[in-house]
Amino acid sequence: MTTDADRRTQLRAFLASNFLLSKEEFPHADDASLLGEGVVDSTGVLELILFLEQTFGLQIEDHEATPRNLDSVLRILAFVDGKLGSAGR
Predict the structure, then answer these.
(1) Mean pLDDT computed over 7-32
(2) Domain tally for the chain?
(3) Using 50, 70 and 90 to split pLDDT, how confident is the model at 89?
């Protein structure tokens, strides 16, 4: 079972590796807009969704792929937590 801290670490490592092409720590704050900062674009959102589905065993519906759910580390973690909770963690 992964903890919130584990999910945060995995997500930040994924963002740094796949979008910044870096093995360094993800340099943006958890509340920074990934779209606004230019970290993720529309194609990147699809990559992010695939990562979340494969890593955390989620099924993300098209209508859930919105900035409200996926535009910052904090929003993503809250969204994932909600999805895991509704799946009967």
Answers:
(1) 96
(2) 1
(3) very low
Range of the domain at 35: 4-86
Residue position matching structure tokens 């919105």: 66
Q: Which amino acid is at 78?
A: A
- Tell how far CA 1 is from the center of its chain: 18
d(CA 33, CA 74): 10
CA–CA gap between residue 79 and residue 18 (Å, rounded) = 20
What is the value of pTM for the model shown?
Answer: 0.91
Q: Is 58 helix (H, G, I), strand (E, B) or coil?
A: coil
Contacts of residue 72, Cβ cutoff 8 Å, sequence gap at least 6:
30, 31, 32, 33, 34
Task: Determine phi and psi for 56, rounding to 5 degrees.
Answer: -110, 5
